[in-house]
């Protein structure tokens, strides 16, 4: 049920990214105009941009902060509060690496959250609270100390797998509380995510599979024409969702599933 | 039929020192997101767009800005009414 190797590999998944600084918006930029980095799938762009922005600041002779910029790929805004791996699965249909992202400074989109570390911490912890509300009626997260909450976020910032799981294991395996519902979100490009109540078991007591869950969340979808992706993996439709929750969840405790027309 | 199903009955309650809304019962499209609701409440209460406004479900967590009201209703409400608290401070941490 609990697969350490898989959890470890998921945590260590990285994406090579090329940040291109928009030369129409950063007019004083000196070449070179790109910055390359390997970014953890499980992290968030606002937590990973300091080196790229330091590099940019040197090229334009002024201090550029994360709040001064926003990211765009293929004409689409990259949301600050989505994990990097989810954004990649969402926006990149053909695997061409590195992932070339445009760093922009003008026409800030209203829909972006403030990219400060405090805002990111807040959004991240609220997602974990919501996930625990689904799993254990919020009882496990509310029994944790503020220090434990902070350790969950700080271990993502500092990329510390063992620190994260020393706290997160209680959210995944609580002795007194069985999991009621699986925190899972379904994304189709261009629409808001779908989230419904998914129990670990079907009514006939068989384990609820990914296919069962998709049919519940998106009853009209023709699954034969979709590719189902999570963590960059084409997940087999017969995978039990309880196994996915424990092994394929992002640190925010949600399984993020992308449905892409194939 | 689809029209009545896609509408959500929403009850907005002030928490902390947030100003009270004179009209607090609304019927809105279920496809609307939390980001839309934040903008709606700020406009109704004349709160500056740049100031903070926190929304809370079940007095326990702030939903993601991308959550639709119908997803929240399905996952966290047993009655036909979706109750959301709003506050200018982070009332429930």
UniProtKB/TrEMBL annotation, chain A:
<dbReference type="InterPro" id="IPR007239">
    <property type="entry name" value="Atg5"/>
</dbReference>
<dbReference type="InterPro" id="IPR042527">
    <property type="entry name" value="Atg5_UblA_dom_sf"/>
</dbReference>
<keyword id="KW-1017">Isopeptide bond</keyword>
<keyword id="KW-0072">Autophagy</keyword>
<keyword id="KW-0832">Ubl conjugation</keyword>
<dbReference type="GO" id="GO:0034045">
    <property type="term" value="C:phagophore assembly site membrane"/>
</dbReference>
<dbReference type="Pfam" id="PF20638">
    <property type="entry name" value="ATG5_UblA"/>
</dbReference>
<feature type="domain" description="Autophagy protein ATG5 alpha-helical bundle region">
    <location>
        <begin position="117"/>
        <end position="173"/>
    </location>
</feature>
<dbReference type="InterPro" id="IPR048939">
    <property type="entry name" value="ATG5_UblA"/>
</dbReference>
<dbReference type="GO" id="GO:0019776">
    <property type="term" value="F:Atg8-family ligase activity"/>
</dbReference>
<comment type="similarity">
    <text>Belongs to the ATG5 family.</text>
</comment>
<dbReference type="GO" id="GO:0000422">
    <property type="term" value="P:autophagy of mitochondrion"/>
</dbReference>
<dbReference type="GO" id="GO:0034274">
    <property type="term" value="C:Atg12-Atg5-Atg16 complex"/>
</dbReference>
<dbReference type="Pfam" id="PF20637">
    <property type="entry name" value="ATG5_HBR"/>
</dbReference>
<comment type="subunit">
    <text>Conjugated with ATG12.</text>
</comment>
<dbReference type="GO" id="GO:0007033">
    <property type="term" value="P:vacuole organization"/>
</dbReference>
<dbReference type="GO" id="GO:0034727">
    <property type="term" value="P:piecemeal microautophagy of the nucleus"/>
</dbReference>
<feature type="domain" description="Autophagy protein ATG5 UblA">
    <location>
        <begin position="10"/>
        <end position="104"/>
    </location>
</feature>
<dbReference type="GO" id="GO:0005776">
    <property type="term" value="C:autophagosome"/>
</dbReference>
<dbReference type="Pfam" id="PF04106">
    <property type="entry name" value="ATG5_UblB"/>
</dbReference>
<protein>
    <recommendedName>
        <fullName>Autophagy protein 5</fullName>
    </recommendedName>
</protein>
<dbReference type="InterPro" id="IPR048318">
    <property type="entry name" value="ATG5_UblB"/>
</dbReference>
TrEMBL record, chain B:
<dbReference type="GO" id="GO:0061723">
    <property type="term" value="P:glycophagy"/>
</dbReference>
<dbReference type="InterPro" id="IPR007242">
    <property type="entry name" value="Atg12"/>
</dbReference>
<comment type="subunit">
    <text>Forms a conjugate with ATG5.</text>
</comment>
<dbReference type="GO" id="GO:0097352">
    <property type="term" value="P:autophagosome maturation"/>
</dbReference>
<keyword id="KW-1017">Isopeptide bond</keyword>
<keyword id="KW-0833">Ubl conjugation pathway</keyword>
<comment type="similarity">
    <text>Belongs to the ATG12 family.</text>
</comment>
<dbReference type="InterPro" id="IPR029071">
    <property type="entry name" value="Ubiquitin-like_domsf"/>
</dbReference>
<dbReference type="GO" id="GO:0034045">
    <property type="term" value="C:phagophore assembly site membrane"/>
</dbReference>
<dbReference type="GO" id="GO:0034274">
    <property type="term" value="C:Atg12-Atg5-Atg16 complex"/>
</dbReference>
<comment type="function">
    <text>Ubiquitin-like protein involved in autophagic vesicle formation.</text>
</comment>
<protein>
    <recommendedName>
        <fullName>Ubiquitin-like protein ATG12</fullName>
    </recommendedName>
</protein>
<dbReference type="GO" id="GO:0034727">
    <property type="term" value="P:piecemeal microautophagy of the nucleus"/>
</dbReference>
<keyword id="KW-0072">Autophagy</keyword>
<dbReference type="GO" id="GO:0000045">
    <property type="term" value="P:autophagosome assembly"/>
</dbReference>
<dbReference type="GO" id="GO:0019776">
    <property type="term" value="F:Atg8-family ligase activity"/>
</dbReference>
<dbReference type="Pfam" id="PF04110">
    <property type="entry name" value="APG12"/>
</dbReference>
<dbReference type="GO" id="GO:0000421">
    <property type="term" value="C:autophagosome membrane"/>
</dbReference>
<dbReference type="GO" id="GO:0000422">
    <property type="term" value="P:autophagy of mitochondrion"/>
</dbReference>
